[in-house]
Every structure is written in C-alpha cells, then in structure tokens.
C-alpha cells in the first residue's frame, strides 16, 4: 500500500516530467539531429555508407520529435488544444503507425550499420564493393518497407481518447475476439522477437569488431618489437588501429543506448497488453503512470543522444563538426576525407572504414 504523501510526491514528479522534459528533448534533439545530418553531408563523410544510415536515422528522429512528441506534450498538458472530432481517429492512426515505424526503423538502422561494420572487418577485400552508399540506400528502403508491414495493424486499430479520459491521446481498440488475441498474445511476441533478433545481431557484430581490434593490436605490438616497417611502416597501422577503436567505441555506446532506451517500453507494453499492470488502487495507478512516462520518454531520449555519442567517441566527427559550423574553415586548407583503406600486415589484412 502506498501512502498518500508518497503518492502526491510521485504525481508531482510525473507532472513535472510531462511538462518540462519533452520541450527540452524536442529543442535539443532537433538541433543535434540537424547537426548530425550536416556533418554526414560534409566532405568528411558523404561517400561513406555508414554515414547514410546515420543521416537517415537523424532525419526520422527529427520528424518524430517534431510531429509526435510535440503533440503528445500538448495532449498531456493542454488537452483541449487537440482536435477530437469525428475524423480524429485518422490522426491517431498516423501517430501510432509512424511512432512505431520510426522506433523500429531506428533499431534496424543501428543493426544494419553494425552488421555492415562486422562484415567489413570479416571480409575486408569485399567491403569496398559491399559497403557502398548505393547499397545503404537500398537497405534503408527495405528497412522502412519491413517495419511498415510489421506495424500496419495500427492503421486499422487506432482511435482517439475523449477529452480528459486518459493522459495519452490514442489507444488501440479491440472490438473483436480475434483482435484481443492478436494484441495480447501475438503482437507482443512479434515485437519482442524482432527486438531480440536485432539485439543479438548487434551484439555479435560488436564482438567481431572488438575481437578484430584486439588481434590487430597484438600484431602491431609484435611488429613494433621486431622493427617491421611493411606497407608504409607502423605509423599507418597505428593510425588505422586508432580509427578502428573509435568506430568500435561509437558502435558499442550507440548499441548499448539503443538497447537501454528501447527495452523498457517494450517490456511495459508487453505487460500492459496482457493486463499484468492493470492498476487497482490510486497509488498503483500513479506508479503505472510514472513508469509509462519514463519508458515512453526513454524512446525519445534515444532519438536525441546520437549527436553526443558521436561527438564523444569520434575525433573525426568532432573535426567535421567544427568544419561544418565554420570554426575550422580558415584554419584548415583541406579537410581529411574519411576513406576505406587497407593495410597488409604479414599474412593478415586489416580494413578500416573511418567514420569516427
């Protein structure tokens, strides 16, 4: 049993979260995502396939923040400003559909980016023909086709809550027994299996990347101790190793953030759809509302933090950012363009696609 004092504190925390946190996410997220797009379009990154995935992710995140989170913030804090007429269900069909599509696309684009890096390291000689921007565009189109098919049910089962009926604007109506079975048992499994496969692919790719970096570091240390200078010397190998570590750290942090920010909402949705979280007392309802808000906003935190992750883990990204905003234009004659390079060290071939 939750005491009234604790309940009132929890309500105030949730109210403050609903009022102040979304505007911060919207403003900072839009600015940061626009900067990511500009950097990915710069001469540093425009020819790299990975940069296209990052740019596509940033564009989707920007539209999601402006179109979805803004409306949700207005509905929670100023519900009378939202249209709730006869045709408002079309609005909710779009919001539900685009919200789930954008979230799933973000997970899949991160998966595609990490898988591509794992393939480039595993098959370095083929990576120049496999990891192209043309192929990245095709994969991105396939990603959006897949997630659109996966979430098409929201176009047929979404409707609008009446004024003051709920903190949320839209809901999924279950007007038949088949729909109830689908939403409670089939849909959660579809979504969770999708996330599980994506997360496993991300983890396996990162393990491959980390293992390759460790092997490369050992070979370079051995070469330095033997005084070897094959293929333009140890400086090139050292430079490539540094780039690989930057790429690995960026992908690891990015992948970890995707999992941390996506998993709580998936768990909450699964439990709630099976009525495990059906609230009884007022205190339980307050906790359910708080958990719902926290897990919901975590999804949008994931759509705002990529800029900070890239800036923190990639010197090349920071260098390109300074160039884009004009800070380095007068100090740098020609920017270093990120490229794919190969160095043969003894019997091992090392690939490094520098995006950091």
Question: Beta-strand level of the residues, as a percent range?
Answer: 5-15%
Write the H/E string, N to C. HHHHHHEEHHHHHEE
The percentage helix is: over 70%
The CATH architecture would be Up-down Bundle
Task: Tell me the domain tally.
Answer: 1
Low-confidence stretches: 1-6, 229-234, 330-356
Count of extended strands: 4
Number of helices: 11
What does this protein look like?
Helices cover 72% and strands 5% of the residues. It has one domain (4-353): Rhodopsin 7-helix transmembrane proteins (Rhopdopsin 7-helix transmembrane proteins), CATH 1.20.1070. It contains eleven helices and four strands. The protein starts with a helix and ends with a strand. The longest helix has 50 residues, at 177-226. Strands 1-2 form a two-stranded antiparallel sheet. Strands 3-4 form a two-stranded antiparallel ribbon. With 356 residues, it is mostly helical. The chain has helices at residues 4-40, 49-77, 88-122, 127-130, 133-150, 154-157, 177-226, 234-273, 282-301, 306-313, 315-324, and strands at 158-160, 170-172, 340-345, 348-353. Helix 2 (49-77) packs parallel to helix 5 (133-150) and helix 3 packs antiparallel against helix 8.
Per-chain topology:
Elements: H1 4-40, H2 49-77, H3 88-122, H4 127-130, H5 133-150, H6 154-157, E1 158-160, E2 170-172, H7 177-226, H8 234-273, H9 282-301, H10 306-313, H11 315-324, E3 340-345, E4 348-353
Antiparallel strand pairs: 1-2, 3-4
């Amino acid at each position: 049993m939750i005491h009234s004092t604790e309940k009132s504190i929890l309500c105030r925390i949730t109210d403050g979260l609903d009022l102040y946190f979304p505007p911060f996410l919207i403003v900072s997220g839009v600015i940061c995502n626009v900067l990511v797009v500009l950097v990915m379009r710069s001469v540093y990154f425009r020819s790299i396939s990975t940069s296209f995935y990052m740019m596509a992710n940033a564009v989707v995140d920007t539209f999601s923040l402006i179109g979805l989170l803004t409306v949700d913030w207005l509905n929670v804090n100023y519900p009378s400003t939202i249209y709730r007429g006869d045709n408002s269900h079309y609005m909710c069909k779009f919001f539900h559909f685009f919200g789930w599509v954008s979230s799933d696309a973000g997970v899949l684009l991160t998966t595609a980016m990490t898988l591509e890096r794992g393939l480039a390291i595993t098959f370095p000689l083929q990576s120049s023909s496999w990891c192209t921007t043309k192929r990245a565009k095709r994969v991105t189109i396939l990603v959006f086709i897949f997630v659109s098919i996966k979430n098409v049910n929201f176009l047929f089962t979404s409707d609008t809550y009446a004024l003051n009926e709920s903190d949320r604007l839209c809901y999924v109506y279950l007007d038949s027994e088949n729909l109830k079975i689908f939403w409670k048992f089939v849909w959660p499994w579809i979504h969770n299996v999708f996330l599980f496969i994506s997360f496993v692919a991300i983890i396996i790719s990162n393990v491959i990347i980390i293992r390759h970096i460790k092997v490369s570091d050992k070979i370079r240390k051995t070469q330095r101790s033997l005084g070897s200078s094959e293929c333009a010397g140890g400086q090139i190998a050292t430079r490539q190793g540094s780039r690989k570590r930057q790429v690995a750290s960026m992908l690891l942090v990015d992948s970890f953030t995707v999992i941390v920010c996506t998993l709580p909402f998936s768990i909450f949705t699964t439990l709630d759809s099976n009525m495990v979280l059906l609230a009884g007392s007022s205190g339980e309802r307050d906790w359910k509302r708080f958990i719902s808000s926290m897990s919901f906003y975590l999804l949008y935190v994931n759509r705002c933090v990529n800029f900070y992750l890239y800036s923190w883990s990639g010197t090349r990204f920071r260098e390109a950012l300074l160039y884009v905003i004009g800070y380095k234009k007068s100090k740098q004659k020609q920017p270093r363009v990120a490229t794919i390079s190969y160095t043969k060290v003894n019997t091992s071939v090392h690939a490094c696609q520098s995006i950091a």
